[in-house]
Design brief:
Helix content: 10-25%
CATH class of the largest domain: Alpha Beta
Shape: globular
Largest sheet: 5 strands, mixed
Order of helices and strands: EHEEEEHHEEEEH
Number of helices: 4
CATH architecture of the largest domain: 2-Layer Sandwich
Strand order of the largest sheet: 5-8-7-6-9
Strand content: 25-35%
Structural class: alpha+beta
Radius of gyration: 17 Å
Length: 157
C-alpha cells in the first residue's frame, strides 16, 4: 500500500531566505504564496513544504524539525564538497564532527551513510544513502571511509 514519503513540512521565519536556500540545494519550487512554499524533491513524487511561522524557533527535535533527503551511494562521497560549494556548513552529529562526515550509524541491521546540516532556521537536514540492509553487527557509529575499509575487507575474505 505505502510506496514512499510524499511530503514533509518545516517551519521557517523568513520564507524568501528559505526559498533561496532550498533552490541552492537544487529543489524546484512548485508553488508559493506569502505564507508557504512547496518544493519538489522528486517531481510528481515527493515534496517539501516550508511554512512561514512563529514556531520556527521551537527547540530542535527530530520528530518535528528534521528531513532526510535520499541520495545514491555514489554521491555520498561528494556531499561534503557539494554543500561547501553552496556555503553550507556540515554540523556535528552523533559525536562525529562535521569535517569527518559522512558517517555510518549503527542501526542494526541496516547501514546508511549520512551527512548532517541545517537550513537558515536551524531545521535539521540530512543527506542519506542506503548502504546495506543485512549487517550482522557494526562497532558503533563510524566514518564512511572506515565503513568502506571494513566492508571491503569483509567481502575479500
Amino acid at each position: 500500500m505505502i510506496a514512499g514519503l510524499y511530503e514533509a513540512h518545516l517551519p521557517v521565519k523568513e520564507l524568501e531566505r528559505s526559498i533561496v536556500f532550498y533552490e541552492e540545494l537544487g529543489l524546484e519550487c512548485a508553488f508559493r504564496n506569502e505564507r508557504v512554499a512547496f518544493f519538489w524533491i522528486k517531481h510528481g513524487k515527493s515534496w517539501l513544504g516550508l511554512w512561514k511561522a512563529g514556531q520556527a524557533g521551537l527547540p530542535y527535535h527530530p520528530s518535528i524539525r528534521h528531513v532526510a533527503f535520499r541520495v545514491e551511494q555514489e554521491n555520498i562521497d561528494k556531499a561534503q564538497d557539494w554543500l561547501k560549494e553552496r556555503g553550507i556548513e556540515v554540523r556535528s552529529a552523533f559525536g562525529v564532527a562535521g569535517a569527518d562526515q559522512p558517517l555510518v550509524l549503527d542501526n542494526h541491521s541496516h547501514a546508511h551513510a549520512a551527512i548532517y546540516f541545517e537550513d537558515p532556521d536551524g531545521n535539521s537536514l540530512e543527506l542519506i544513502a542506503p548502504l546495506r540492509f543485512d549487517m550482522e553487527t557494526m562497532n558503533g557509529t563510524m566514518s564512511y571511509k572506515d565503513w568502506q575499509h571494513l566492508y571491503q575487507t569483509e567481502t575479500k575474505k
